[in-house]
Amino acid sequence: MDSLNLESPPLIVAPAERPPRIWKFWGTALWGLFIFAGMFAGQLGVIGYFILRQGGPFDMATAVHVVSGGLTITLSVIMGLPAVLAAAWIAIRPTRTPFADYLGLRWTSWGNFLLGVIALAVLVGGWDMVSRALGREVTPGFMGDVLKSAQADGALWLLVIAFCIAAPMSEEILARGFLYRGWSESRLGVVGAIILSSAVWTAMHLQYDWFFFGEVFCIGLLLGYLRHRSGSTWLTIVIHGLNNFAATVQTFWLAGN
Description:
Blueprint lengths: L24 H30 L5 H8 L2 H23 L6 H5 L6 H24 L7 H12 L3 H29 L4 H15 L6 H21 L2 H23 L2
Helix pairs in contact: 1-2, 1-3, 1-7, 3-6, 3-7, 5-9, 5-10, 6-10, 7-8, 7-10, 8-9, 9-10
């Protein structure tokens, strides 16, 4: 009869909340496809807008001209970022893990930053030396074409924002933020997650040939290692952005000589 005693009310036990979770291999792979699809949809929306602006009859030549335009590429890359953020938020929300924590969106030590800058300079410098030794272009040819087109459209500053800020954020949130996080806690482990996320990231750069594929993959391995060492996706975003900025400046300088 203690339950009827107002001086000692019954103990009410609240149901335990389910702990946060992390998507493992297949969950990460499927949601990763969803995030990539979101990025592609955001970019495709810009391309579709520019195609509709052309007016008149539509043919393949018109589509190629619009898609290869510097302003079109620039704005499509920029618009891919909010699409990635929205898709990643949808993917992470069921885990009940804070968005920033899941993706590793935290800063790290300046020592890790300095290590990343030095390692990137050595790696890219080595690939540049091999490229010159083989008589190849140091920068991909399409980058020069896009830069010239964006400059003609008066959108050079937008191009820098797209290549050096928007693209690194979109790609790192997907590859080193989402994919690495889930795969590193699956049976793949850290090494497998670094390799597989780098391979996926490399496959996103279909505009390159086999040589630059190799360079992108090696940069991806470095970024994956930095993600593991520091626990910070912000670090890989900044290092990625510095790499793209250096490549943009180098392309601009070579195009002017």
